[in-house]
Amino acid sequence: MDAGQFKTGIPVNIIIGSHVWIEDASLAWIDGLVTRITGENAEVQTSNGKTVVASLSKICPKDMEAPPGGVDDMTKLSYLHEPGVLQNLSTRYQLNEIYTYTGNILIAINPFQRLPHIYNSHMMTQYKGAPLGELSPHVFAVADVAYRAMINEGKSNSILVSGESGAGKTETTKMLMRYLAYLGGRAATEGRTVEQQVLESNPVLEAFGNAKTVRNNNSSRFGKFVEIQFNRQGKISGAAIRTYLLERSRVCQVSDPERNYHCFYLLCAAPPEEIEKYKLGPPKSFHYLNQSNCYELVGVSDAHDYLATRRAMDIVGISAQEQDAIFRVVAAILHLGNIDFAKGKEIDSSVLKDDKSKFHLKMTAELLMCDSEALKDALCKRVMITPEEVIKRPLDPLAATVSRDGLAKTIYSRLFDWIVDKINVSIGQDPTSKSLIGVLDIYGFESFKTNSFEQFCINFTNEKLQQHFNQHVFKMEQEEYTKEEINWSYIEFVDNQDILDLIEKKPGGIIALLDEACMFPKSTHETFAQKLYQTFKTHKRFIKPKLSRTDFSISHYAGEVLYQSDHFLDKNKDYVVAEHQDLLSAAKCPFVSGLFPPLPEETSKSSKFSSIGSRFKLQLQALMETLNSTEPHYIRCVKPNNLLKPAIFENVNVMQQLRCGGVLEAIRISCAGYPTRRTFDEFLHRFGVLAPEVLEGNCDEKIACHKILEKKGLIGFQIGKTKVFLRADLGGKPRQQLLFRLTGIAARETGALKEAKDKLEKKVEELTWRLQLEKRLRTDLEEAKGQEIAKLQSSLQEMQSKMEETTAVLVKEREAAKKAIEEAPPVVKETTVLVQDTEKINSLTAEMENLKASLESEKQRADDSENRYIEAQCISEERQRKLHETEGKVHQLQESLNRFEEKLANLESENKVLRKQAVSMPPNKLLSGRSKSTLQRRSENGHIINGEAKPIADPYSASFNMRENSEVDDKPQKSLNEKQQENQDLLIRCIAQDLGFAVSRPVAACITYKCLLQWRSFEVERTSVFDGIIQTVGHAIETQDNNEVFAYWLSNASTLLLLLQRTLKASGAVGIAPQRRRSSSATLFGKMTQSFRGTPQGMNLSFVNGSLTAVDKLHQVEAKYPALLFKQQLTAYVEKIYGMIRDNLKKEISPLLGLCIQASRTSRASLVKGSSRSLTNSGAQQALIAHWQGIVKSLDTFLHTLKANHVPPFLVRKVFTQIFSFINVQLFNSLLLRRECCSFSNGEYVKAGLAELENWCSKATDEYVGLAWDELKHIRQAIGFLVIHQKPKKTLDEISHDLCPVLSVQQLYRISTMYWDDKYGTHSVSPEVISNMRWLMTEDSNNPVSNSFLLDDDSSIPFSVDDISKSMKPIDISDIEPPPLIRENSGFMFLLPQTN
Predict the structure, then answer these.
(1) Coiled-coil ranges per the record (predicted)?
(2) 20 to 30 A Cα–Cα from 421, which one of 303, 679, 1132, 1285?
(3) Is 46 annotated as a binding residue?
């Protein structure tokens, strides 16, 4: 593909102010704003502050309305071009969304960190059966589609996983295998399952086939195709692993800083005894390892991995002897590489260089169990066979070294093939299998500084796969257009057949020319290169470099690659050297000789050339034939950075991989046709606002879509049978952009009008409230003013009257004074008065002042003391109060402790009885009288002593007191036991019928309890009555799938269990004869009855003979082992029946819940806008809400069934609590996995449905529903977030503490990034809030629990026997009428109600 052709993306009118993408050397693409246009060039102000001039033809438009979290399918992008794709992947990667679709292709970006929450079993459950694209992109979705297609269509499928080294192919393959094992796996009956063995083979293959490269610490240096075979039932029945092109040259040649295959380093780190046995040293002491300076991997322990590899080999069926032989061969290869050669005395001969080489030759021969001299001759000499004689020709040191390396590569490749064959034999294949799913994990396109024969073969493989990929993508496009009956003939299909012909054509292709050169002894890489230059000088895909005489370039689909031909000839040669073959086939080690079986006679006499290139071409051809016979699915793995670290996205690196992976080519094929596709309902919902009048009335959806497109003047579109198809280019303007912008404007206008309306309504409401307040204030003010004036007037009158009175008095006084003056004598005589003791008076005055001061001081001290006294008294009272509270709590805790100790003692006693009985029972006997022997039946009322049945007291025998201490004849005893057995059988036949209820009490449970208590069945060592009861219950619920039956038996079983719980206690020892304890509080039981298990005080049982008449005489029974076992079995059945009822309700509402979840898709089409469609909308609303009403109807039916059968309200509450929890999980997880559910309109829809459930809860009452409504807290808060307005203004604190306090940051983050407003076009929370959420998630990333954003459904049993006992009211069973079947039987007379 011409990358430049695709970069321009969609032709668009660029104007000043346009937001665009331009090419950038460091970032691949950078966004900016057009500031000036001059001719064919534009000046762009980039986001990093630079000003760049670029050609308009190389500028791509930027979508300013792209969702902040990106899109999960890149065919939904408004602009389908390189920068749009890159930006979308980068945005999603920053959100830890590592999977993205491009149509049916899955792009997987390596996160370089563990994300266990997206691969757990609950996530597998979500993707099971979900159509592709319905949930968020995931590797499980691809595997599920492949499996469903295989099951439904009966055709084999394949999943092709590709990508460069370090992109995560191997991990992706493991996840595919895990999911396929989840879908088609079987429970292991004997040994391990097929899928387990396939998964467990990975560590072994990685140890011998993986190595560290420049780009990846665990790079697979071979291709792997895993065939998983399935039987007719869709279960895995067999598997096979096919491998391709192991990189043999790595055994002898390692570049720095890479490593050789892992197994060499693992063996060098083996335990000391292994090192000594193989005479090994550190890796740097071996030539095959020390060519690179890298010996260890960061964070990896080779010693640990050696032991792990040995364990993995055990698991896949490689025996200990075979393992020793394998590592002996690996050690021999290391020693072989250290054999060096020097020139010999003869011409062109060679000898061992030194003693070190002799030592390694000796060790190699010992480990391979062959003769050392024969090994030396095989390395240093060649045998030439002529018609006259056999000649041994010596080899020079260089040729001997080549011979040594050839032997090492041959041994290692055969060892690897043996391991693969052994794994396949261990796994086993199913010859009858008709369907398979193949998972191809193969190397991606490679282009390094130095590219040799391995890169040539790898890129040849990828050219083949790319052709297959292109054909598939084109085929999918073609099928879509054909199905929709639109014209597609003009779409161009780019084929790379010319490159494949260049490489593989025979004769005349590069591989054929290479084989030809290898067969001529005098050929060199120079002559080979010249032959290539001459043959392909006119080929447009072959390029001769100007500055090299041996290199050549090929223009691959992913770009041009320069190959160095220096080692092509050597690496293509795979001689079967006769000397090597003869030497090792005669080895004394059976394992080594098995790697080199005898060759046919004609090939054993000389070294025969075998072309690796040709053999690889045949392997590849077989692989392509397999792939062509299957339905392919593609996963493109991408390595986001070369640092192998999380959260780093290198644009240039990723863009190159997208080109190499064919992703951009797939997009180009899509762009050539109609990249934008919308179903009619989606189109009308999205673009209906452009022409509201078209939606008036009830016109056909197809016609309505056509009218909208015509109204906007769009041409060139096509309308299919169910979808509208839009071209990428529309006369210089992108159609999709135009539609989306128009829709966005309309949506924004609608949203703005709604927001303005809301604001105005709020303002009017506020002004109205203020006006009313002001009116009230004014009225109050007027009233207060009038009252004040009246008060002032009255005061004024009073003052005036007083003034008049004062004036009159003053006048009178003046007249009297005047008269007195006139009458007074004319002279007044002054008299002086002498004051004595002045000093004494002064001193007394001063003393008095001092006393006053002292008095004040004393008063102050007295006040302070009084205040302190009051404070102390308050503190004392507070402490006294706390002391009383503490004493009360201590008393309560002591009582609780006593109760718990007594419960514990009882449980320990009960367990002791069960353990002792279990130990004492012979292994060939069944527990609790399961054997129907006569002896056990007769021992119903006796102990087995020395093999004889000894009778105990018969509680209802009239002659009990007379015969208590006398021996009983065998015949009467036999008769008595037979009668007892008949009564038991009659009781069991009776309770097998539906006996109904007596005033809400289950009759079967009540009469069963009364019979067991009367017969003292709880107190005997052996009895068969309990087995009969348990079998009756089991048969009733296992033969019918009827909720009425389940509810009936749940009511009976729980009632009987309650009565047992309040009556039985464990016996102190197994051998003590059972008796009824009649003493009161002086005994241990007397003390326990006051507190043990909260025995109800209102329980009233009435039996004959006055044995139990009132609660004050209620005694617990010391139960023996059969009774305790019966209680356990009954508990298990209560839990089982409860679970069956709960699960039946789940099954009934699950399809309805699915419709509620899926309704978000149809609702957007059905609830169209337009005033005249109110009736249509109303009908659509009713149809949609009907799903929720169906759930309510199911809940009502179940509640009625449970109430009709008088199931204890406690159990009913538990059922509905778990059901509502199930609803919460399903709805909430759907939001997190389906983007279409995370919309505003879906929020409104689910909110209306939740209102239906809330209404049902209120009608059902708390007695039967309890706190079930609270179980919906996650979905309620999430929906509240979806429908709230002005999300960008909300802070993280408001969201996490006020709106959604229950939701985790991971859940909030996912909802916030997936949210889209399909109604008003508003945005989600602000980028600042998103950033804060990401920071919090990073801080908490080490917690695997917090990383999981999905909820788990709890299917446990949420109650214990004690919970039932505490929650149920006392039951009076004294007046229960026996059923007709036993009413007239004399043996059941004690059941008749007693009258005073």
Answers:
(1) none
(2) 303
(3) no
User: Letter for the amino acid at 149?
Assistant: A
Per-residue burial over 1232-1265, b = 16 or more CB atoms within 10 Å of its CB, e = otherwise: bbbbbbbbbbbbbbbeebbeebeebbeebeeebb
820 is in an annotated binding site: no
Where in the sequence numbering do the catalytic residues fall?
165-166, 170, 216, 219-220, 444, 446
Do 1067 and 1118 contact (CB within 8 A), yes or no? yes
929 has binding-site annotation: no
DSSP secondary structure string for all residues of 381-447: EEEEE-SS-EEEEE--HHHHHHHHHHHHHHHHHHHHHHHHHHHHHHH---TT--EEEEEEE------
Give tens-digit pLDDT for 456-483. 998 999 899 888 888 888 777 788 888 8
Cβ atoms of 1130 and 1041 within 8 Å: the answer is no
Establish whether 163 is an annotated binding residue.
Answer: yes
Residue with tokens 């490269």, as numbered in its chain: 213
| Residues linked to residue 560 through DSSP beta bridges, in sequence order | 555
Label residue 600 left, alpha or beta by phi (over 0 means left) and psi (-120 to 50 means alpha): beta
Q: How many CB atoms lie within 10 A of CB 566?
A: 17
Pairwise pLDDT comparison (735 vs 981), residue with the higher score: 981
Residue whose entry in the numeric block shows the structure tokens 């985790």: 1304
Quick one: what percent of the chain has pLDDT higher than 70? Answer: 81
Residue 731 labelled as part of a binding site:
no
pLDDT at 1203 (0 to 100): 93
C-alpha span between 829 and 820 (Å, rounded): 18
Say how many C-beta atoms besides its own lie within 10 A of residue 14's C-beta: 18
Report residue 693's pLDDT band, with 50, 70 and 90 as the boundaries. confident
Burial of 757 (0-12, 13-18, 19+ CB in 10 A): exposed
- What Å distances lie between residue 138 and 90, 100, 854, 1230, 1334, CA to CA? 17, 8, 92, 15, 21
Q: How far is 156 from 147, CA to CA, in rounded Å?
A: 9
Distance CA 122, CA 142 (A): 17
**Strands 41-46 and 51-55, bridge-based pairing:** antiparallel
167 annotated among ligand-binding-site residues: yes
Q: Is the pLDDT of residue 1013 over 60?
A: yes
Residue 313 has what pLDDT? 92
Beta-carbon contacts of residue 818 (< 8 Å; ≥ 6 apart): none
CA torsion sign, 120 to 189 to 931 to 989? positive
Angle at which helices 1240-1260 and 1174-1204 pack, to 10 degrees? 30
pLDDT tens digits along 1335-1386: 887 776 555 444 567 888 888 888 888 888 888 888 888 888 888 888 888 8
Taking only the tens place, the pLDDT of each residue in 276-309 is 999 999 999 999 999 999 999 988 999 999 999 9
Q: Which residue has the tokens 């039985």?
A: 1064
Do residues 1141 and 1047 lie in contact, with contact meaning Cβ atoms separated by under 8 Å? yes
Q: According to the annotation, is 1179 in a ligand binding site?
A: no
DSSP secondary structure code for residue 114 in this structure: -
> Residue 1120 and residue 1118: Cα distance in Å, rounded?
7
Strands 1001-1002 and 997-998: antiparallel
Task: Write down the H helix ranges in 921-944.
Answer: 934-938
User: Which residues, 6+ apart, have CB-to-CB distance to 1067 below 8 Å?
Assistant: 909, 913, 1074, 1118, 1119, 1120
Radius of gyration of the chain (CA): 47
β-partners of residue 210 are 220
The label of the residue with tokens 């999918």 reads: 476
Q: Kindly give, in sequence order, each residue whose CB lies less than 8 Å from that of residue 1302, ignoring residues fewer than 6 positions away.
A: 1273, 1274, 1277
Question: Quick check: helix, strand or coil at residue 551?
Answer: strand
| Token digits of residue 898 | 């006593």
- The per-residue pLDDT for 749 is 56
* Cα 406–Cα 412–Cα 418 angle in degrees, nearest 5: 135
Name 375's Cβ contacts closer than 8 Å, sequence gap at least 6. Answer: 361, 364, 365, 368, 583
